[in-house]
Design goal:
mainly alpha, Alpha-lytic protease prodomain-like, Alpha-Beta Plaits, 2 domains, 3-stranded mixed β-sheet, 8 helices, 68% helix, 11% strand, elongated
Length: 298
């Protein structure tokens, strides 16, 4: 297993353990002090445990080497895991939105300083986890780990809402304005929309990769510059590239002088492949079709 893959799996384990601990803290304190927002956030965190476990399983599969049944590797397992995380986030957003709307039709919830402290602890912990997980995910180009990082970011939003709602409620109790306790469902409704948008963006990105959407034109242009810089390559007839989980695949049709031997053509292509894969470590495979070129073709 590579160092990057090992770092990714360690980050997922840290996320999993942290989510389990935070779920327990929120549910216990929420039930002890009758804090509906903490109970809701705890249930949301329980969903995060499932999401992180899904991402971990997908990452383990994606790191398997290519085999006879999967000659391009198992990279898309990680994308499937990211899509599952997006779906779980979307369901959590709907749940939080429903809970926030429902709270407007109930008596103002009671608030307690310990519940406020739990929300602040969750906010700080989730922000640290988001920054750490996103950094490792981008270094490893891991879709599953980046999805987990965005899941932490959604929790940051939820914790901000919880802290704001409980804090406003505490101020209301302090200054005799119990109506301020409804600040929590208002914040929760706003956060539910933010989390839903986050889930949509993650899901769309995963869907595009599963449907083998082409890489952006600027990336294709960069590949083309490397190819045309290789001595002996006269023309690019077609160039395609796509993501396959945490790595990329490049397909090219290039032309070389038609009078070259097969060995000479092969040597040129080998240089081309090595140049691209050295310049872009995220490229796992370069598939090349060789065409003949003659001066009269120009």
């Amino acid at each position: 297993m590579s160092l990057q893959n090992r770092s990714s799996l360690i980050a997922v384990w840290i996320s999993l353990v942290a989510n389990i601990v935070l779920t327990g803290i929120k549910l216990v304190i929420g039930l002890l002090f009758n804090s509906q927002v903490l109970i809701a956030d705890g249930i949301h965190n329980a969903g995060d445990v499932i999401a992180v476990a899904t991402a971990y399983s997908a990452m383990r599969v994606s790191n398997k080497p290519a085999d006879d049944d999967h000659p391009y590797g198992h990279g898309k397992a990680e994308v499937l895991g990211a899509l599952m995380v997006a779906i779980i986030l979307g369901l959590a957003a709907v749940y939080m939105g429903f809970h926030a709307i429902e709270a407007f039709f109930e008596p103002a919830p009671s608030v307690h300083i310990i519940a406020f402290g739990a929300a602040i602890v969750s906010l700080i912990a989730k922000q640290v986890l988001y920054v750490y997980t996103m950094r490792v995910g981008r270094e490893a180009n891991s879709k599953g780990l980046i999805a987990t990082a965005y899941d932490h970011l959604a929790d940051v939003y939820a914790s901000i809402a919880a802290a704001a709602g409980i804090g406003i409620g505490l101020l209301g109790n302090m200054y005799g304005f119990p109506i301020l306790a409804y600040g929590d469902p208002i914040a929760g409704l706003i956060v539910s929309f933010l989390v839903l948008k986050l889930a949509w963006d993650m899901g769309k990105d995963s869907y595009d990769i599963l449907m083998e959407k082409s890489l952006p034109p600027e990336e294709l242009h960069a590949f083309a510059e490397h190819i045309l810089a290789v001595p002996g390559i006269k023309r690019i007839d077609r160039l395609r590239a796509r993501e396959h989980g945490h790595y990329k695949l490049v397909d090219a049709r290039v032309s070389v002088l038609g009078t070259l031997t097969v060995q000479e053509g092969h040597d040129i292509i080998r240089v081309m492949k090595n140049d691209i894969m050295t310049a872009y470590p995220e490229v796992d495979e370069v598939l090349v079709h060789l065409n003949p070129w003659y001066p009269e073709d120009e």
